[in-house]
Design a protein that fits this description.
By secondary structure, the chain is α/β, with parallel strands linked by helices. The radius of gyration is 22 Å and the shape is globular. The chain folds into 2 domains: about 270 residues, Metallo-beta-lactamase, Chain A; about 160 residues, Rossmann fold (3-Layer(aba) Sandwich). The protein is built from 15 helices and 19 strands. The strands form 3 sheets. Strands 6-5-4-3-2-1-19 form a 7-stranded mixed sheet. The chain binds zinc ion. Zinc ion binds next to loops.
Length: about 450
């Protein structure tokens, strides 16, 4: 078995791994590196194309797969979950792998479908929608090789571990996850199956390194739910506006927000294209329990007319909207620049059910936005949130369950990857023998 660490091994983003078993090659994930993509969106001189994305490092540099002569052997592409840093690169690279069948869970595949439409590309590949906790043969690949999708908790629905079972042993892909024993939507992680997989033997595992150095728990979604309850309690006053913003793909969180918003007796409206996209995908796959309780406004005209009503009847609505990272053209950004029919006033409330993704652009954008709002006298409640990535406890539990012979950290800075190497040392792994710090493009023969 050979593993080509294509992208996401030196940063958070552009995740992509290739595995070669015999004459078959399989790819897992193909995501965006968001800082690169944002740079591209703000620079009109470089086109928003595969070439442009390559130039800014916004997608995995999969040209390494040509270099090692694996490209014609790619039989399938497996997607772990719907986050952009795992799937959004695929519409721009998939034409390089015309014979590969794409596998993913229903929500992931629906989000991919919507990204493909956004990118205006035609995909001719076979698409296979699979359920969590299921195992599949792969068209065109050796019959002895199967792929399994094991349910896990994370910060978007339908997230999975991807496991490749081969005659040479099993390969385990653990990007991204948090072991949450008290999720508020859907089942907990499939520990029973993870234990079985571990007992049957795992040759190698790629494991997410974010928060490997953090000892205390990152909290359950149940904790986020309790935090939201308190935040809403604090924010509900009769005639003030009440806004909430969170990650659009975090359907479980949105469900909790709607639950608490409804208790205020106000009408709940969702504003913005990104929220509309993910809510509609969740609805399509039957996993949007709050859909009938909300009004969803996607287009600018609709958004403006509802914001006018909110402006005139501030106490009648809870507005759930985009903009928690201060993103340009998000609803909060446009409101703060006076580009809508709504104006924040002293005493209004804004709940950030999010944390700042710590890039320079986000930190600065949020600083500017929050300064403006504070000057007006808007009550800001920040970090009403728990992370979707587990801390050190989650890493240890995975190592104990899956017991991989070889451990490869990914999805973090070098420092964070070193933290996971330290955790692995406690279990007897030896750097360079059974654990590896790898660079993008590196090939490991195991
Ligand atoms: Zn993720």
């Amino acid at each position: 078995m050979e593993i080509c660490c294509v992208g996401g091994f030196e940063e958070v983003g552009k995740n992509m791994t290739a595995i070669k078993v015999g004459e078959d090659v399989f790819l897992i994930d193909c995501g965006f590196y968001l800082p690169g993509v944002i740079e591209l969106q703000e620079n009109n001189e470089i086109g928003y194309t595969t070439r442009g994305l390559r130039r800014v490092g916004g997608i995995p540099d999969d040209r390494v797969i040509d270099k090692i002569k694996w490209r014609d052997k790619v039989k399938a592409i497996f997607l772990s979950h719907a986050h952009l840093d795992h799937v959004a690169g695929l519409p721009f690279l998939i034409d390089r792998y015309p014979n590969a069948t794409v596998f993913g869970t229903p929500f992931t595949m629906k989000v991919l479908d919507s990204l493909v439409k956004d990118a205006h590309v035609n995909i001719k590949n076979q698409m296979k929608v699979v359920q969590s906790n299921s195992t599949h043969s792969i068209p065109g690949a050796s019959n002895d090789i199967k792929v399994e999708f094991v349910h896990t908790t994370h910060s978007t629905i339908d997230s999975t571990f991807v496991v490749l079972h081969t005659p040479e042993g099993s390969f385990f892909y653990a990007l991204d996850y948090k072991f949450d024993d008290t999720p508020t939507m859907g089942p907990g992680p499939n520990y029973t199956r993870l234990k079985e997989i571990g007992e049957n033997g795992v040759k190698a595992a790629i494991i997410n390194t974010l928060y490997s150095g953090k000892l205390e728990s990152n909290g359950s979604e149940k904790d986020a739910d309790d935090m939201l309850e308190r935040a809403f309690h604090e924010a509900d006053s009769n005639d003030s506006a009440l806004f909430v913003t969170t990650f659009s793909s975090h359907i479980e969180r949105l469900n909790n927000i709607v639950k608490h918003a409804q208790k205020t007796g106000r009408e709940v409206v969702f504003l913005g294209r990104s929220l509309a996209k993910y809510v509609e995908c969740a609805q399509y796959v039957g996993k949007c329990p709050f859909r009938k309780q909300i009004k969803l406004m996607r287009y600018r005209g609709q958004v403006n007319s509802i914001l006018k009503r909110v402006n005139e009847n501030r106490g009648k609505y809870v507005v759930v909207c985009t903009g928690h990272q201060g993103e340009q053209n998000s609803i909060l950004d446009r409101i703060s620049k006076g580009q809508t029919n709504f104006t924040f006033k002293h005493g209004d409330h804004l709940i950030y059910s999010s944390s700042i993704i710590p890039t320079e652009v986000n930190i600065e954008a949020r600083r500017v936005l929050d300064d403006k709002l504070k000057k007006i006298g808007v009550n800001l409640q920040v970090n009403v949130h728990v992370h979707g990535h587990g801390s050190q406890t989650s890493k240890k539990k995975l190592i104990e369950l899956v017991k991989p012979k070889i451990l490869i950290p990914a999805h973090g800075t070098r420092e964070q990857e070193e933290d996971l190497i330290c955790v692995a040392n406690e279990y007897g792994y030896k750097l360079g023998e059974t654990s590896y710090l790898v660079n993008n493009g590196q090939v490991l023969k195991i």
